[in-house]
Amino acid sequence: MLLSLPIIQPQPEPVAPARPRKPDWLRVKLPIGPDYAAVRKLVDEHKLHTICESGNCPNMGECWGAGTATFMILGNVCTRSCSFCAVATGRPSELDLDEPRRVAEAISLMKVKHAVITSVNRDELKDRGASVWRDTVVFTKELSPETTIETLIPDVKANWAALDVMISGGQEVISHNMETVGSLYRLVRPQGKYDRSLEQIRRTKLQGHRTKSGIMLGLGETADEVHQAMDDLVANGLDILTLGQYLQPTKRHLEVAEFIHPDTFARYKEEGLARGLKYVESGPLVRSSYHAERHVNVPI
Questions:
Q1: Alpha carbons 107 and 84: distance in angstroms, whole number
Q2: What percent of the chain has pLDDT over 70?
Q3: Binding annotation
Q4: What are the residues whose beta carbons fall under 8 Å from the beta carbon of 217, sequence distance 6 or more?
């Protein structure tokens, strides 16, 4: 007697969900032109780090073509491991105390009217690199007294004495990026704390400074969460907010959950102003230092 065996059909391979396709409004031109080349040459000659390069900024061509750049001090290795950021993570080996002078000289040579200075996190340093921050601003003001400065400072992990030094150089704008809404902090900024960053902004404002922050959209946040973040920032003294589209820097980083339409960015701008922010820069290609020269005129 022959046994009848069931026919086993081959199972199809599981299909990974398709990644959202980058829309046309996120396409940018490659950086070219003599002005861009001049900035490139100065950055290389003075051995400077820029977040334009380390962060793969989509506006590098536009900004460098206009003869401006955002300088990154305290090296190019960060002690944090944020899941959105293209800057290298590890234990930094360099602490160049001559860097403030070199940055100030480069800004003077470039005849920059408005300079943005940022840095990696240096959690291993007792003062979080605060003295280098202060000296960079002070030296730049000495060499280029007409240059206005924004400093985009990192999370000091509640080292408020370090914060006081960081913001004491005479800069016109002091920025600290929230990066995302509260519910996504553990995913996006695992070594950061939402309330702690708000407290840093609050303490900066209490000392009479012009305050600024930035949030990336497209990481899975809801509109209500963005509105809540705006309310939290206003309650803690924020003046200026930038909103831009998150773009995945490499395959090792967080994937984009959604590409936000420019019309939605426009609505967020209206919401932010209605909720009490003094200035909102909102658009798919907006980054922290985009059009930063406009922010020095925001009333304190």
A1: 29
A2: 81
A3: 52, 57, 63, 78, 82, 85, 289
A4: 226, 243, 244, 245, 246, 260, 265, 268
Most confident of 21-25, 74-78, 230-234: 230-234
Whole-number CA gyration radius for the chain: 22
The structure's pTM equals: 0.85
Q: What are phi and psi of 65, to 5 degrees?
A: -65, -25
Residue 191 burial by Cβ neighbours in a 10 Å radius (0-12, 13-18, 19+)? middle
Read off the amino acid at residue 141.
K
State the distance between the two ends of the chain, measured CA to CA, in whole angstroms: 94
* Spatial contact of 219 and 182, defined as CB atoms under 8 Å apart: no
User: Which residues carry a binding-site annotation for [4Fe-4S] cluster?
Assistant: 52, 57, 63, 78, 82, 85, 289
Residue ranges and CATH numbers for the domains of the chain are 30-294 (3.20.20.70)
Taking 90 as the threshold, does the pLDDT of residue 112 lie above it? Answer: no
Looking at residue 30, its pLDDT comes to 59
Matching residue, tokens 């032109």: 33
Q: Are 234 and 277 in contact (CB under 8 A)?
A: yes
Please count the CA atoms within 13 angstroms of the CA of 25 that sit on its side-chain side. Answer: 13
Q: Is residue 281 a contact partner of residue 290, using CB atoms and an 8 Å limit?
A: yes
Query: Contact 114/293 with Cβ under 8 angstroms?
Result: yes
Q: Dump strand ranges (E) for 145-204.
A: 148-152, 173-175
| Amino acid of residue 96 | D
